[in-house]
Specification:
6-stranded parallel beta sheet, alpha/beta, 8-stranded mixed beta sheet, Dihydrodipicolinate Reductase, domain 2, Rossmann fold, about 350 residues, globular
Length: about 350
């Protein structure tokens, strides 16, 4: 499978590394970036061609798939063009910055013979897979609440490095849309359909950006469960992303992509917490060979291992003619939560989570 990458920045380099690790089943054939030197440098590192126009990727008959790694507000337009050109697409999160744009991708996929996946690589972490499976099997009982926190740091130089960062038009928001959306996706994947959001946002540690560097929200789910969401790039020096899921028969904590706590009550329905297993942390037995917890989530380029799992699923889905594990519908659901957070923060009111293109 021959890939083209559109966007040779930090995340484009991550995608290039993933494609190279799929060899010999995949090859990076073309790198596109509007800055000629950046396209040439990344292309040279992998023996690929370089171009400055996305049309080069769409017009090459020997390009099978395109990775969209541009600023977020350009994702939908490029994805639609790639689908219309008969290419498979893997697009970085978010699918775009508005629900209207996201639905353009959904419509294009419906009329195409090719497929799209949106990057949500942390669904493929062993810890996430284990907790999701435990939820599906009912091992945590009725889910009651969840907590998702992304306490990261981005210096002012990060935002100054590109005029699109922290802008509404191209970044779609700030800490929540760019950094927190991965954890939003995990929370929704685990707790189910989100129906209502109450939120506040602020910009407290950065200048010259339009959007927030901190967002907090309460999410109500269709099941009745409640979730707490916290996303910031103003937590110096940068901590890990963390997600907690709690039910009436068990709880799980993932910290820095590592399962740090898991407990599911045993027995046939006695009162949880009264038996010999009360408080026992089962995480080490379930995932005994986990990698050490990262020190901080502050390096946007240190993601190639996590991305690689999703790349493998994407290639296998194409070969097997099945849907990828992360679909455009999945991406729209996470985007709808983010849109609802921003709307609630703007109005000061609780707002419904609507996955329609209205927002």
């Amino acid at each position: 499978m021959r890939f083209a990458i559109i966007g040779a920045g930090v995340i484009g380099r991550t995608h290039a590394a993933c494609i190279s690790q799929l060899a010999p089943g995949a090859t990076l054939a073309l790198v596109v970036d509007e800055i000629p030197g950046r396209a040439r440098d990344l292309a040279a590192a992998y023996g690929a061609e370089a171009a400055t126009s996305a049309a080069a990727a769409f017009g090459h008959d020997d390009i099978d798939a395109v990775a969209i790694c541009t600023p977020s507000g350009r994702h939908a337009g490029l994805t639609v063009a790639a689908l219309d050109a008969g290419k498979h697409v893997i697009v970085e999160k978010p699918v775009d910055v508005t629900l209207r744009a996201a639905h353009r991708v959904l419509d294009a996929e419906a009329r195409a013979a090719t497929m799209v996946t949106v990057v949500s690589q942390h669904r493929f972490d062993a810890s996430s897979q284990l907790v999701h499976r435990a939820i599906q099997e009912g091992r945590l009982g009725r889910l009651t609440s969840g907590v998702a926190s992304v306490a990261w740091w981005r210096g002012q130089d990060y935002y100054d490095s590109g005029g699109w960062r922290g802008s509404w038009a191209l970044d779609g928001g700030g800490a929540l849309m760019n950094q927190g959306i991965h954890t939003v996706d995990l929370l929704v994947w685990m707790l189910g359909e989100p129906v209502e959001v109450s939120a506040r946002t602020a910009c407290l540690a950065h200048q010259r950006i339009e959007a927030e560097d901190i967002a907090v929200a309460v999410i109500r789910f269709a099941s009745g469960a409640l979730g707490v969401l916290h996303a910031t790039t103003a937590a110096y020096p940068g901590l890990t992303a963390r997600i907690q899921v709690h039910g009436d028969r068990g709880s799980a904590v993932i910290d820095g992509d590592r399962l740090t706590y898991f407990h599911a009550a045993t027995g046939d329905g006695g009162s949880p917490g009264n038996g010999a297993d009360a408080g026992l942390n089962q995480a080490a037995d379930l995932l005994p060979h986990q990698a050490p917890t990262p020190t901080a989530g502050s390096d946007p380029g240190a993601l190639s291992h996590a991305h690689l799992h999703q790349y493998r699923d994407f290639v296998e889905a194409i070969e097997q003619g099945r849907r990828p594990a992360v679909t455009v519908d999945d991406a729209i659901r996470a985007l709808a939560v983010v849109a609802a957070v921003y709307e609630s923060a703007r109005t000061g009111e609780s707002v419904p989570v609507e996955a329609s293109p209205r927002l």
